[in-house]
Design goal:
633 residues, disordered C terminus, globular, alpha+beta, 20 strands, 18 helices, five-stranded antiparallel sheet
Length: 633
Amino acid sequence: MSKGTLVAGGLLLVLGAAAIGFAVTREATGGITPEGTAAMGSATAGLDGDIKAARGQVEQRAKTLAETGELRGSIGTDAGTTMERIGREIGFKPDSNEVLELVQRAKAGGPVTTLLLLPDDKMKSAHDGTPGAYVDLMGDQLLVTQVVEVMPSDKEAATNFAGFVVASRKLSLRPAVDKLVSAGIRGRLEIGAAKLPIGVMPGDGTTQVMPLASEPSASLVVYVPPMRGGMPIPIVGGGAGAAGLGLILVLIGMMGGKKAAAAAAPSGGLAAQNSVALGATQLSATPSPYATPSPYDPNNPGASMANLGDGQQIGRWQIIKRLGSGGMADVFLAHAKGEAGFEKQVALKVMHGHLARNERAVAHFLDEARLASRVRHPNVVAIQDLGKIGDDYVIVMDYIDGVDLERLLAQAREGNRPVPVEIGLAIMARICDGLNAAHTSTASDGTPLNLIHRDVKSANVLISKQGAVQVVDFGIAKAATQSHYTQAGETKGTPSMMAPEQRVGEQVDVRADVYSVAAVGYEVMTGQGVNLDLAALAHLGVENWPHLPLPSAVRVGLPIELDEILLRAMAFERERRPANCAVFGEAFEALMKKYNLTASDKDIARWLDAELAIMNGAASRTESTAPTIARTS
């Protein structure tokens, strides 16, 4: 009886432990798939690029039309006269995605009157008579609008009326929505109060908000499926019950007598050992193939990324505030305290929890830290550390107290304040220096990394309050030693700034970065936004690429040599471009020397300080409220 009881008890213990082990190790399913993650990144990057390019186009179009004598002379007339006068002129004919409108408003008050609308399209801006830049969601299309005041040429009309020219471009969202739906993404695009559904949003699960950098009021709200599978509670309960019953039977058997206890001891001992070994296997942390030794305290109970907040301590870092959120990570400002009162602020880039379960996304995230950490240069944001807290991956970066170049350029355009020529050239030379350091970086054994950034744009250039210019966000960089690779034909980056060979998924080299730097340079030096997306410009052909006016024609006073420097670097054929960023940077430096247009970091800092004073108001000049940047990918 005792022997049978012991055997039965031991068997139940083993079976119970096996059931619990199966339940604990059973892989959970759910979250966003790798295809969905790639589709989200592509959709948001493409939409950001399209909005940015459309903004540049409508701004230039509206300002140009506002200066024409025909429009200025039409303020104070009626719609019929205006249509008869200029409505049929070729210069005012909009293209297929453009809407042009001329309106007037009596200064004594009253409604806005439309004098001209081309084409006679129901999709028109709702911002008539209010100068500024706008983005509106209308059905499955975006309407990007610029409203500019027109000064009437007739004195009497100027006394009685105010005029406004409205230039808008329509962007179809259907291709992006279809791509997201086909990748299994469900959610909605929100711009202000307007919403565009993406598939059908299920009732369970959570959502992730991905803001668009190009439009503060816009965000992509993505449905995150709940994790399913994982640890089945019934199996866990059944296993625990069986193991418990087995333990009771073993105890009963052991109480039957010394002989039975002695005979049964090995069996019971073996079952217990198996159970302990199984538990140890489940509780031990199996190192990820991507992980590096963690600089964090794993025993810190507050180190949970799900509830990070101001003042929370993570190892030696204390959270100060959240800086921002992107498609792959959240970024927090934190500070580390050391001995003798030493304190240093850092930016903690924390990977989104649902992506941490995606092996390819983790490899992508950690590649950024590995690659950038090998580049040590004053014009590249430094990576300090890399670690893991539980299931969360964290990159520790230098904290840059300043603002990104994209925002500075947007503000300069809005205020009609072009970047001073010497400041612009100095910024471009420093960008080239930083990227050349990345391109020529080596592994610890001296082997070239052949690192290429692949997403150079003004948003990824930071300028500190001390005037330092630094390149950031190597999140989609490419290197020979990378642990994950872009799949064949897969395109990553910002289409509006992307070299043609990169846009079509071909192999790229450092000349792709040269091309993107030149596109940034065109924006910096001319003040005009660009869209060099091959898909959008393919109908224009290769001849005269990149189909941009000469910089010296766009902005009076630019050195004529800039025309050749910038446009050659944006040549369609990579063989025509400068061989690398070192050569490209030397061209800017030679121009600066020739015309005595040099600028130091202090000069850049003074320019930035003036821009921040305008951005934040004179009262906040000493403590800017502009976002201090640690870019999110």
